[in-house]
Design brief:
four-stranded parallel sheet, DGC, DGC domain protein, 140 residues, alpha/beta, 6 helices
Length: 140
């Protein structure tokens, strides 16, 4: 039975791509700035290599994945380690909904477009976290 006190935020790795930078930065914003008491950060490389703490996070808490591209590596890693994805925010959907383009953005130096994408992705994920906080408060 999952513990609904926190949500395990799992961003994609996106090695070599701007998508990974955006999903990780959105995750940091959620976990470190906005919801430090309601979230834990799952490190995708640690999860993939079997670090026990990250495996416990995906088994103990509802999992919110932030996927950056069609490969959906965060989802695959969670499922591969026996977890279940409870919520997903998919960056291409957010970009389409917000009419944002990442053309010209570089992984090594995220610019204004990337900042807007980070904020939009975090905003979408924030709605999921907020809803779960409300549901949990009603249950207590």
């Amino acid at each position: 039975m999952k513990n609904y006190e926190k949500i395990a935020v799992t961003p994609c790795a996106g090695i070599g791509q701007i998508f990974g930078v955006i999903t990780r930065e959105a995750a940091y914003k959620l976990v470190e700035e906005l919801y430090p008491d309601n979230t834990v950060l799952v490190c995708l490389p640690a999860l993939a290599t079997g670090v026990q703490e990250d495996i416990e996070f995906i088994n103990d808490y509802p999992v919110l994945v932030l996927n950056g591209c069609k490969d959906r590596c965060a989802t695959k890693a969670v499922v591969d380690k026996g977890g279940k994805v409870d919520f997903e925010v998919y960056l291409p959907d957010v970009l389409r909904e917000e009419k944002l383009s990442l053309a010209g953005e570089k992984r090594s130096r995220p610019g204004e477009r990337s900042r807007k994408a980070i904020d939009a992705l975090a905003d979408k994920a924030e709605k999921i976290i907020e809803e779960n906080i409300k549901v949990r408060e009603k249950a207590v």
